[in-house]
Structure formats: structure tokens, C-alpha cells
Amino acid sequence: MSVRDAFQSLNNYLKSQIIGQETLLSRLLIALLADGHLLVEGPPGLAKTKAIKSLADCLEGDFQRIQFTPDLLPADITGTDIYRPEHNSFSFQHGPVFNHFILADEINRAPAKVQAALLEAMAERQVTVGNTSYPLPPTFLVMATQNPIEQEGTYPLPEAQLDRFLLHTSLNYPSAEAELEILRLIRDEQKNLLHTQTDELSTQKTENTPPTVTQAQIIAARQNVLEIYMAESIEHYIVHLVDATRRPDQYSKDLAQWVEYGVSPRATLALDRCARAHAWLAGRDFVTPEDVQVMVPDVFRHRLLLRYEAEAAGFTADQVISHLLQQVPVS
């Protein structure tokens, strides 16, 4: 099976397990292919945890969920040196971050010093404790979640932390049709759990066995994504979109009134990688302007800072980004 076929099989399996959240599944795969991390914001019950667990079940590697709470300590994530009296020495006890796939659940419920424990891991694929640095797996991926409904007892992520995330995806409730599919799917799963010994169920489980994507296939897929052709005009288009957030007065009077700070150079790199990954998943070997436009909201959403006046008037980052896309012509 080719690498592309393996990821197509993976995508089909995930869609059979997670109903009504196609955007989340797409962004998870793009983050995996673009070697980045994903911040997901949405109300409870939208299968955020199930999505990352279903993905991890299909990938060669270990999965760990970390529940962020106000009493969490940085060492609870990274690990710490433990004194061994029998040897009269210290040895490092690895924390849960030393896995391939991490779910940082409700990351904004922990203080900044705990959130910062992920900074080095996310940016440099290593953890430093004392004078020693410990490497993380090359396919290390963090998916962090935030609940936008409850703000009491939360600690907003600082800009430096937000910028480490490749994508920021915002989820909404599924449609009525998708809700009906979810109801039937969960009901069937519950029936299966009550009849786990029947021959008929054993056949169903075999047919619904999750595919396995190896570490080597993930690395090969990332290489394929980097080799996707991007025309020079598309590169200029990406740069102009980024420039419009930094010099908004050159593009639109409204943008100048709304935008306080533009996106960082990480946004340029992220948009390039994500557009390539989106094209590759679509089965193409070249990037189109539509690939770029689809990814702009998720790449810019958490990096764009709005003026106080814009927020007071009720404008959101998504509305500003939509206006930006209208103002910057395709090269």
C-alpha cells in the first residue's frame, strides 16, 4: 500500500468513527503531515478527545492524555529527577510528555508556568531538566483543547505559547442530520458492548479494524508533502496575505482600524506547509490558491491581535480574516 493510500484509508476510518466534525479530522491530519501542533476550541461533547484517540489508535506510537488543572505542576508534565537511595544517585523519571501523541485537555485551566512546560517540547522536540536534554519522538504531536464557554478559573495562553501551535481550529455543534447519525452510531456501539461474545459481533469488529500507519509512513508522507509543487505566484500570495496583517493601512482602511499586531513569520511557514498538506490530502501534486485560502483562518486565528475598538464593536478574528481575504488579490 502506498503512503497516500494509507492516509486515505486512515481518513476514511476516522470519518466512520467521528460524525459531523470533518474540519477537526482534516486539521488533525494536516497537523500530522505538516509536523505541527493543533489547538482546538469548542464546547464540550464535540468528540475532541475521541478524535485524537481514534487517530492515535491508527498510528504506530504511544498516546497520553494530560488533564490540565490549576494544581498541576510543570514536573507533572515533563518528569523530574528522582533520588534512588539504593544507588545513592538521581535518575530521571519521564513524564507523560514523552509519548508520540499528547492530548492537553483544557490547557487553559493550568497556570502559565505549567503551560510553558510544553513550550520547549513543542518547539524543539526535547525536554530539558537540570543540565540534561531528553529528545522526544520525531512524530511528537500535541493537540490542546480549550472550552470557550467557561472563563472563570482559566488562564489565557500567552502569545508566545499560542504562536507555537501550527493551527487553531474552532468547532461548532453538528447539524441535525449529523446528530442523528451520531445517535445511531453510539447506540450501535453500546449494543455491541453488551454482546461482545457473539460471532456476529466478532465479524463486525474485524471489518471495522482500524488501519495502521507506521512511523516510517508518516515521515515519508511528510517528505511527499514538502515535494508538492507550489508556483511562485502562490508564494507571493502567501507573503501578501501575511503582509496585509502587518501593514493593514496599505490594503484597507477597515483593516487598519481593526488590526493591532500582525502575524509572525511562523504564520508564513505554517501557511506554506498546511497548504501543501491540504493539496496532498486532496490527491493533487500542486498547490492552488484555494488550498491557501482554506487554511488561512486556522493559521491566522490565534496569531492575529485585534484593536480594542474592534473587539468592543463585536468584530472577531474570523470576520477580520474574511475581510482580509477579500482585500488581497490572488497573484
Task: Describe the 3D structure.
49% of the residues lie in helices and 15% in strands. The chain is α/β, with parallel strands linked by helices. It has two domains: 3-176, Rossmann fold (3-Layer(aba) Sandwich); 228-327, Orthogonal Bundle (Helicase, Ruva Protein, domain 3), CATH 1.10.8. Strand 3 and strand 4 form a beta hairpin. The longest helix is centred in the middle third of the chain and has 19 residues, at 176-194. It starts with a helix and ends with a helix. Mean pLDDT is 90; it is low at 200-206.
Q: Mind telling me which CATH architecture of the largest domain this is? A: 3-Layer(aba) Sandwich
What is the succession of H and E elements? HHEHEHEEEHHEEEHEHHHHHEHHEHH
Name of the CATH superfamily of the largest domain? P-loop containing nucleotide triphosphate hydrolases
**Separation of termini?**
38 Å
Count of DSSP strands: 11
Percent in helix: 40-55%
Strand content: 5-15%
CATH topology of the largest domain, by name, is Rossmann fold
Output the structural class. alpha/beta
- What is the count of helical runs? 16
* Unreliable parts: 200-206
